[in-house]
Amino acid sequence: MPEAPPQDPAVCRGPGVPRGRGRFRGHFVKVVLDTNVLLAAFATRGLCEAAFAACLASHEIVLSECVLGELHRHLRGKFKTPPRQVDAILSFLRENATVVTPTKVRPSACRDRSDLAVLGTALAAGADCLVTGDHDLLTLKTFRGIPILSPRAFHDRLR
Predict the structure, then answer these.
(1) Which domain holds residue 58?
(2) What integer is the mean pLDDT of 64-72?
(3) Residue with more model confidence, 88 or 158
(4) What is the DSSP secondary structure assignment for residue 77, as one 8-state letter?
(5) For residue 139, is it within any domain?
(6) Residue 16 lies in a domain
(7) Has residue 136 been placed in a domain?
(8) How far is CA 43 from CA 31, 37, 46, 48, 95, in A?
(9) Is the pLDDT reported for residue 7 higher than 80?
(10) In percent, how much of the chain has pLDDT > 70?
(11) Which of 16, 83, 100, 104 has a 20 to 30 A CA-CA distance from 94?
(12) CATH number of the structural domain spanning residue 77
């Protein structure tokens, strides 16, 4: 009698989720976090912080110098974070994330040209998803096969 194939631990079945489609739990994922998600993760307690912690523990965070530069500008400008703390955050991210050079993306790919580098980061990374709170990016839903998820949608897929 043939042996049954081993269960794939990446497949998470649950009520209403046939064969685990659309779920990430138990599956190593390359995740690009947009600047707004990183800012929320470091500035507040809540969903973005929980998603960031889950990524640190079980997934691969992928960023680019463009994202890190934007994070630096917002932390210093809008959030008035002390330089030493900004340096500590950026050092932490560089040590715990993969930093890639974004792939060039055609300007027609999205409405806001400042989002091109984030899309290029996801492409260069071969990301499994892009997590953002940016409405211009979220309206795309996917980019060249990469799902674009809100922090809530990403968090729900992790559970």
Answers:
(1) 27-158
(2) 98
(3) 88
(4) T
(5) yes
(6) no
(7) yes
(8) 20, 10, 10, 10, 19
(9) no
(10) 82
(11) 104
(12) 3.40.50.1010
